[in-house]
Amino acid sequence: MPDSMMYQEDNYVVLPPSMQEQFVKLPELEDILRGLLAQNQDRLPVDLQKFPSIEQQVECLIKTACEFESEDGTWQWFVVRLEKPKGK
User: Fold this and answer.
1) Hey, where are the domains in the chain?
2) Which 3 state secondary structure label does DSSP give 1?
3) Which helix (H) or strand (E) holds 26?
4) In this structure, are residues 67 and 12 in contact, taking their beta carbons and an 8 Å threshold?
5) Taking the C-alpha atoms of 76, 70, 57 and 60 in order, what is their torsion angle to the nearest 10 degrees?
6) What is the pLDDT of residues 23-68, one digit of tens each?
7) Residue among 52, 76, 48 at smallest CA distance from 60
8) Angle at 10 between CA 85 and CA 87, to 5 degrees
9) How far is Cα 74 from Cα 26, in angstroms, rounded to an integer?
10) Dihedral sign computed on CA atoms, order 83, 8, 60, 37
11) Considering the entire predicted model, what is its pTM?
12) Among 83, 86, 80, 35, CA closest to 61
């Protein structure tokens, strides 16, 4: 049976256009994406335009994507596991 830790998505690495990686928790990633989306509402991809709120857009991005093209360049984020499961 798979270890439940394999399905935890609490830690992310974010690669901004400057390519200086940041390790963040989910709430921090949500804050980063909120800011990006707020600044780029006129540049949203079609799949995000159907959501009426930035909160819904953030949720969609986290669940379905790993990058966003802003006016400053491409932002990417990936789930990472920062600790080794016990007993492995």
Assistant:
1) 10-79
2) coil
3) helix 26-39
4) no
5) -30
6) 999 999 999 999 999 999 998 999 999 999 999 999 999 999 999 9
7) 48
8) 5
9) 19
10) negative
11) 0.81
12) 35
